[in-house]
């Protein structure tokens, strides 16, 4: 048995040990820079696998010629991890399966991804990277994200960009290889990059231009280089792009407001007997009913006759004459008065000049008159 004094001295030591354990756990959660997971070697699994696993995938007809050429390289790459690969040109399929020498259980899944990428038009040089530890792949299906085919083709082309510039920028920022082929987008690279590639591809299919996501990726890349900002929130630095609706739908001039839905049917309209009961006509005699009906008919006839007479009388009503407004004559001033004597003198001067005007002295006969007299004689 320990003395009571000794037990009290051990309590602060226990507290220190607990604190040191908490700090060790925090250190373990943070991955140090430049750390890499050690490779899986045959010594880690000396007995191998218990069961044989296999995967198969189909490939299109246009990939047959390329796969024939590079199949020997595929077999060599998979042979290093002790996996068999068979190419069936009759069925158009590729199959991979484990052997007795296979020691890495995850290698068969990498081999499965390799044949999937080769079927989706990814070149062998890029697809073989999937066998590395830090590299993964993602095949994104985009065929069903857009309904109209024309719109789908436009958005897919937007992802590629002019001369593949948008795709190249995305590859540089995410350090992934991206291949757009048919209804799928295949990506090979690190896990963080694949996450970003998937986000950009899906946003592009949702009509969000890839340039916005590329811009945010560029800002994130710059912020990651700064050791002070690495642990802080980056929301204040990232741009916030809002979707603008450029074209608004034209509103109709006459809006028809829909009636509020009610589960109950409309009230039943009153019958002829109900109306007569309400007014009291139902209890009158037949002769009184007839008399009342005739008086109503006569009132309608007189009203119609008066309207007809008014229409006829309109033709005999003379139209209103337009009142002519007399122009006020201006008082004769010294400037407005015409000098008649000066005009007469101007006319005389014009006649005196030889401008085709008759001569001033009518008594002197002209040369033409003399010739005419000779002809008469």
What's the helix count?
Answer: 12
**What share of the residues lie within helices?**
40-55%
Describe the largest sheet.
3 strands, antiparallel
**How far is the first residue's CA from the last residue's CA?**
188 Å
Beta content: 5-15%
Low-confidence spans: 1-10, 362-368, 371-377
Count of beta strands: 6
Mean pLDDT: 83
- Give the overall silhouette: elongated
Strand order of the largest sheet: 1-3-2
Counting copies of identical and different chains, the oligomeric state is: single chain
Order of helices and strands: HEHEEHHEHHEEHHHHHH
Instruction: Output the radius of gyration.
Output: 53 Å
Structural class: mainly alpha
Explained architecture:
With 377 residues, the chain is mainly alpha-helical. Helices cover 46% and strands 9% of the residues. It has 12 helices and 6 strands. The strands form 2 sheets. The chain has a 3-stranded antiparallel beta sheet, covered by helices on one side. The protein has a 3-stranded antiparallel beta sheet with strand order 4-6-5, with helices on both faces. Helix 6 (165-174) runs parallel beside helix 8 (210-225). The N and C termini lie far apart (188 Å). 14% of the residues are buried. Mean pLDDT is 83; it is low at 1-10, 362-368 and 371-377.
């Amino acid at each position: 048995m320990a003395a009571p004094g000794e037990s009290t001295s051990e309590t602060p030591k226990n507290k220190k040990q607990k604190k040191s354990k908490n700090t060790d756990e925090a250190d373990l959660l943070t991955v140090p820079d430049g750390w890499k997971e050690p490779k899986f070697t045959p010594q880690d699994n000396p007995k191998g696998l218990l069961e044989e696993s296999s995967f198969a995938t189909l490939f299109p007809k246009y990939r047959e010629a390329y796969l024939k050429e590079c199949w020997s390289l595929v077999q060599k790459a998979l042979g290093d991890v002790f996996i068999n690969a068979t190419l069936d040109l009759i069925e158009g399929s590729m199959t991979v399966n484990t052997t007795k020498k296979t020691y890495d259980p995850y290698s068969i899944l990498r081999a499965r991804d390799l044949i999937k990428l080769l079927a989706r038009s990814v070149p062998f040089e890029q697809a073989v990277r999937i066998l590395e530890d830090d590299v993964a792949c993602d095949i994104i299906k985009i065929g069903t994200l857009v309904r109209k085919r024309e719109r789908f083709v436009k958005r897919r082309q937007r992802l590629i960009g002019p001369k593949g510039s948008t795709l190249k920028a995305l590859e540089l920022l995410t350090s992934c290889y991206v291949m757009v082929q048919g209804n799928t987008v295949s990506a090979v690279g690190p896990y963080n990059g694949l996450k970003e590639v998937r986000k950009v591809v899906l946003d592009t299919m949702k009509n969000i231009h890839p340039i916005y996501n590329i811009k945010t990726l560029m800002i994130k890349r710059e912020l990651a280089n700064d050791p002070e900002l690495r642990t802080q929130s980056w929301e204040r630095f990232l741009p916030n792009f809002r979707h603008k609706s450029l074209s608004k739908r034209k509103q109709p001039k006459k809006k028809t407001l829909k009636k509020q839905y009610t589960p109950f049917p409309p009230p039943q309209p009153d019958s002829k007997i109900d109306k007569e009961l309400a007014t009291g006509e139902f209890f009158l005699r037949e002769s009184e009913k007839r008399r009342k009906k005739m008086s109503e008919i006569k009132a309608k006839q007189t009203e119609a006759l008066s309207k007809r007479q008014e229409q006829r009388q309109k033709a005999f009503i003379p139209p209103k004459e337009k009142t002519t407004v007399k122009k006020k004559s201006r008082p004769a001033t010294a400037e407005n008065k015409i000098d008649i004597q000066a005009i007469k003198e101007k006319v005389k001067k014009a006649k005196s000049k030889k401008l085709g005007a008759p001569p001033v002295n009518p008594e002197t006969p002209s040369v033409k008159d003399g010739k005419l007299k000779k002809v008469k004689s």
